[in-house]
Amino acid sequence: MHILVTGGAGYIGSHTLIELYHAGHTAEVADNLANSSVEAVRRVEKMLDVSIPFHQLDVCNAQALDQLFSHQPFDAIIHFAGLKSVGESVQNPLRYYSTNITSSLNLLSVIKKYHIPHLIFSSSATVYGTPESLPLTENSRTGIGITNPYGHTKYMIEQIMRDFAQSNPTVAITLLRYFNPIGAHESGAIGEDPHDVPNNLLPYIAQVAVGKRPEVQVFGDDYPTPDGTGVRDYIHVVDLARGHVAALAPAQPGVHTYNLGTGKGTSVLELISAFSAACKKELPYRIVARRPGDIAECYADSQKAAQELNWHPTKSIADACRDSWRWQSQNPNGYR
Ligand code: NAD
Ligand code: WQD
User: Fold this and answer.
1) Distance (Å, whole) CA 61 – CA 58
2) Burial of 187 (0-12, 13-18, 19+ CB in 10 A)
3) Could you tell me which residues come within 8 angstroms of residue 212 by beta carbon, excluding any fewer than 6 positions away?
């Protein structure tokens, strides 16, 4: 299949390009580089020895998007493009609503106009808000207890896509709810490259390991979890990328929703310890206050993706820490 990958220069998008080509697909990338570097795509091209057309465009620009589709037929779209910083979304909610929702609306318009049969959307475990019970299945309650505009955009876009699918019965839409993606490609050539202070735990730990930051701040050790620190379902980004390839298998029209997680919870202290083992030094950390909006625990039931997509994550937390450390130590300044 020939796939348009929006946001393909980003963290998950660049890893997905590799897995798409390994599976025999081809791709083009549309990205405005708001949070990424074209160097990521160049490195993927080098690794695969292929040329991947790169369109530097804002998916919120309906005209530019229409022009792209008028010149090139696509068999499917994987829509990664969007803004993802939880804290920034609280500071600047309009930018988040505008970017994430407008880009999705524009894509749905071209899907309708150009009869694209399948859209895969990057949703998030954040749509589950405060879990009623664990593990989270695709039927778990959504929308209650989402604490930030970023999370609201994912919840709203899912609803918009369901409404769109109802009125366009030939289109398949796959909503992939990612848990906590971590790690990097095992080559060390591509990985996560936060432009500012990392919001997420693993890239923060990696920057402590490489000496860019003095210590990890652990946000609370008084949660009702085994060691008191927050527990999450960390999924290796390469396993996650393969989930997109699995989801490309011919899908029936309608909306399909899948959790992509491992089903296993790991605490903040366990992750720091795993990374310390990977980089072979004890990483300093300090317990500080809880971060507002955080939940104690979150992990997936991914049986549905296993059964229907034959998708099975294969990589461990140790693999993710080793690969992330390889990327971080070989590229201390990311792509710059
Ligand atoms: P990322 O920031 O690395 O990638 C997003 C890409 O989209 C970037 O390359 C950015 O330049 C591009 N982009 C942003 N706005 C754009 C626009 N208007 N037009 C064109 N391109 C635009 O983030 P990521 O971690 O790779 O996340 C990819 C997707 O997965 C996002 O939609 C994110 O919300 C979602 N997601 C991420 C996580 C996570 O923890 N990383 C978890 C759940 C869901
Ligand atoms: C993980 C754990 C923190 C940083 C966020 C988004 C979610 C999704 C993934 C996109 C928590 C603790 C963190 C630090 C810490 N993104 N922590 N010190 O909050 O589970 O999910 O990213 O969709 O929507 O909300 O991930 O990596 O920020 O935090 O102690 O410096 O690490 O309290 O327990 P989170 P995270």
Assistant:
1) 5
2) middle
3) 332
Catalytic residues: 150
Report the nearest-CA residue for atom 13 of ligand 2: 201
Q: pTM of this prediction?
A: 0.98
Residue 332 CB partners (closer than 8 Å, separation 6+): 210, 212
For ligand 2, mutation pick of 150, 180, 208 (most atoms within 8 Å of CB): 180
pLDDT digits (tens, 9 = 90+) for 48-94: 999 999 999 999 999 999 999 999 899 999 999 999 999 999 999 99
Residue type, 146: I
Q: Is the dihedral of CA 158, 163, 166, 168 positive or negative?
A: negative
- What pLDDT digit, counting tens, does each position of 93-113 carry? 999 999 999 999 999 999 999
Q: Is the pLDDT of residue 224 over 90?
A: yes
Q: Which ligand is nearest to the CA of 202?
A: 2
With the most atoms of ligand 1 within 8 angstroms of its CB, the residue from 80, 178, 244, 298 to mutate is 80
Ligand 1 residue neighbourhood (C-beta within 6 Å): 6-7, 9-13, 31-36, 58-60, 80-84, 99, 103, 122, 124, 178, 181, 200
Ligand showing the shortest atom-to-Cα distance for residue 237? 1
Helix (H, G, I), strand (E, B) or coil at 310: coil
The H or E element spanning position 255 is strand 254-260
Please check whether residue 188 is in contact with residue 327, taking contact to mean a CB–CB distance below 8 angstroms. yes
